[in-house]
Amino acid sequence: MTVASLPIRLFLTGVTLALAAAAAAQDAPSPETAPPAVEAKPPPYEQRLIRLAEILGSVHYLRNLCLAKPEDTWRQSMQALIDQETAGEPKRRGHMTAAFNRGYRTFASVYTACTESATLAEARYRAEGATLASEIAARFGN
To answer: Going by fewer Cβ within 10 Å, which terminus of the chain is more open, N or C?
Structure first.
């Protein structure tokens, strides 16, 4: 090895180390990328709550269809339930909102005018919702 080739060897070694370090840095996860959020396990009454949301949507549509003056009570009740149950859980919030909308749209596609059948359906859904709410509170309430 000659003295003249020593600086070239040092230069090439330095470049190789720099390239290796750059490649390793690309493979490592960046500190800015946060790990995916772990979804919390839903409560044991989640399916009952989804059904209740669907019932509230159905009753909201049917009540407003059959009343002379529309009311917003059932939608407000649903909003309060969503706010209390899903704080900080956007996925659950989305599921409950979708269930409410599904209940609303299901009856909107069937009834365009208040009929005896619509009134009967509204009463039955209200009774089912009351029973479901009582069961959830009795079994899982504080």
So the answer is: C
